[in-house]
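ok new one. same drill as before - structure tokens go in, u give me an amino acid for every spot. 105 of them this time. try not to just spam alanines like last time pls lmao
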């Protein structure tokens, strides 16, 4: 971020074209968002996060997480996980109710 701000101050007349490169350089080695290949994945984390940061993830309402709920930033939108790639599966309410035998379900 410091590098980007320095670039903006030094190159005001050329900011539109040149400083976009500085902006990209400022986020290098950080994750800018969740992996786009895992649908319905959400987090409360604010992006960008530094490389190596662990991000707790969950799923949109009506879905449950299957796999790891902690992923680690590698770069851009590339993350790694310990054991299983997280996936968001539809919650089958009938199946869930039968499994826990809730009276009001």
């Amino acid at each position: 971020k410091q590098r980007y701000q320095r670039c903006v101050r030094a190159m005001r007349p050329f900011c539109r074209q040149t400083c976009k490169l500085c902006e990209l350089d400022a986020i290098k080695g950080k994750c800018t968002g969740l992996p786009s290949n895992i649908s319905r994945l959400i987090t409360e984390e604010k992006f960008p996060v530094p490389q190596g940061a662990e991000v707790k993830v969950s799923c949109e309402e009506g879905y449950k997480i299957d796999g790891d709920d902690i992923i680690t930033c590698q770069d851009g939108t590339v993350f790694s996980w310990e054991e299983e790639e997280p996936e968001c599966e539809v919650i089958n309410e009938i199946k869930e109710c039968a499994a826990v035998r809730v009276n009001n379900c």
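Confidence is low (pLDDT under 50) at residues 1-6, 8-14. and btw The first helix runs from residue 2 to 10.
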